[in-house]
């Protein structure tokens, strides 16, 4: 994510806003890890409600037409049995009274886990990773994910959403590790 700490960064930033209210530190990182890797799906609801509470207070949330969870590749979905971003997005959508789309978005290429990669490796890892197979003409979209670290994942997806016609794209995550 471009900041004053990295003034030479010239990555095209596709997001119109980013909301990630909490720091990815203990005990929150343990909860998110349990959601993703230990099958504790019920944590998605609690984390989603927490995110919704933050977003609801923001004026930018009122202009969102649709929420999209970051898609998992089919192989990772089969391993895990669910997408943690969907588990977070559902309660956000319900709390805000906003539609959410899962169909028409996909992670078309399996990517390495982002956690062990640096910023440039993350961007390269996500090149051509997402596909959007639906028209989003003039819709204001919010991407929902669990954690934003460098912003590479949400930025790559935002690029595809804008190519599909989205008017604006925000990223909403429970936590940030920046």
Task: Describe the SSE topology.
Elements lengths: L16 E3 L2 E2 L4 H10 L4 H15 L9 E4 L4 H7 L3 H13 L2 E2 L4 E3 L11 H8 L3 E3 L7 E9 L3 H12 L4 E9 L2
Parallel strand pairs: 1-8, 2-8, 3-4, 3-7, 7-8
Antiparallel strand pairs: 5-6
List keywords for this structure.
single chain, alpha/beta, 6 helices, 8 strands, 37% helix, globular
Write up what this structure looks like.
With 178 residues, the protein is an alpha/beta fold. It has one domain: Rossmann fold (3-Layer(aba) Sandwich). It contains six helices and eight strands; from the N terminus they run ββααβααββαββαβ. It has helices at 28-37, 42-56, 74-80, 84-96, 119-126, 152-163; strands spanning 17-19, 22-23, 66-69, 99-100, 105-107, 130-132, 140-148, 168-176. The strands form two sheets. Strands 1, 2, 3, 4, 7 and 8 form a six-stranded parallel sheet that branches. Strands 5-6 form a two-stranded antiparallel ribbon. Strand 7 (140-148), helix 6 (152-163) and strand 8 (168-176) form a beta-alpha-beta unit. The longest helix has 15 residues, at 42-56. The chain is globular, with a radius of gyration of 15 Å. Mean pLDDT is 87; it is low at 1-9.
């Amino acid at each position: 994510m471009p900041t004053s700490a990295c003034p030479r960064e010239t990555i095209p930033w596709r997001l119109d806003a980013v909301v990630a209210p909490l720091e990815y530190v203990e005990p929150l990182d343990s909860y998110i890890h349990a959601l993703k890797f230990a099958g504790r799906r019920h944590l998605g609801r609690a984390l989603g409600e927490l995110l919704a509470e933050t977003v609801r207070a923001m004026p930018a949330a009122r202009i969102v037409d649709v929420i999209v969870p970051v898609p998992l590749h089919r192989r990772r979905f089969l391993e895990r049995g669910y997408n943690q971003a969907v588990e977070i997005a559902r309660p956000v959508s319900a709390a805000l009274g906003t539609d959410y789309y899962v169909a028409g978005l996909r992670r078309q290429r399996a990517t390495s886990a982002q956690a062990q990669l640096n910023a440039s490796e993350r961007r390269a890892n996500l090149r051509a990773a997402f596909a959007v197979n639906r028209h989003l003409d003039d819709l204001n979209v919010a991407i929902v994910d669990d954690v934003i670290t460098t912003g590479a994942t949400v930025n790559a997806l935002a690029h595809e959403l804008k190519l599909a016609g989205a008017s604006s794209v925000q990223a909403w995550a429970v936590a940030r590790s920046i």
